[in-house]
């Protein structure tokens, strides 16, 4: 059993604290607004009056606030207690914010681990939950067993920015899937169908498209986008024109599919009409091809 402090008792921090209590850990909790810890205290958690008191109580300090600005202000108020602690910051942020905070925390004599939570609060502590971690590896390894109370702990490297990078990369996939589904469901609804009736086919199609990821990955890593027997971009540009026209005809705004159409046309205009769709990635790097 390890003593662990949790700072931030919003929906996510509360779920994290409950998972630790379920796993039998001694837990100290702090939240800026009083009163959010009552159910946790009645389950055996200890209430800290200040962030400094919560940080002093445990070697492992888990933070889950709404943003980094709050984390920075809170930690600055408890600077003296940080030495010797392991700060596991599970607040969502950017890789740049994580790297800057890691440097500051480590300069206070503490170890910094960043976390990107790939779950919603009811999933915490279930097999469906996983969390990316990055930063100080020895500190992560020392506390991995405790952190696994939240879900599978996936370490992605010593760069503190790696966990938020993987987090936002996966959220990009979520947005893409959601956009595609909403566009498709709007078309079905606009012509009198139901989203529920259409959804089994949508799932079947999405699952078969997701199975193409490994082939796309090979093309992206090699930079060889030739469409050998596949679906070339010139054909896809024509198909996307039809998709946009059909959406308008059916009374649906094509706003969610227009950006991809524009990129595909750009790639064709650049002379890559015989390539496969993965080549569109070349238009996304702001500073030339990715590392
Ligand atoms: P909530 O809005 O439920 O809670 C926000 C928490 O942040 C509260 O405890 C709030 O304290 C605290 N807070 C905000 N500003 C400050 C500040 N300046 N100083 C101290 N405390 C502050 O959010 P969640 O718990 O849902 O989310 C927390 C983090 O978890 C976010 O970074 C979110 O992106 C991430 N996350 C959430 C998921 C979700 O589905 N909920 C999924 C994956 C990640 P107070 O009570 O005083 O307002």
Automatic annotation (TrEMBL):
Q: What is this protein called?
A: 6-phosphogluconate dehydrogenase
Which positions fall inside the NADPH-dependent reductive aminase-like C-terminal domain?
159-284
An annotated Gene Ontology molecular function: oxidoreductase activity
Keyword DNA damage belongs to the record:
no
Q: Is the Signal keyword given for this protein?
A: yes
Q: Where is the 6-phosphogluconate dehydrogenase NADP-binding domain?
A: 3-156
* Record keywords, A-Z: Oxidoreductase, Signal
- Which InterPro entries does the UniProt record give? 6PGD_dom2, 6PGDH_NADP-bd, HIBADH-related, HIBADH-related_NP60_sf, NAD(P)-bd_dom_sf, RedAm-like_C
Where in the sequence is the signal peptide annotated?
A: 1-17
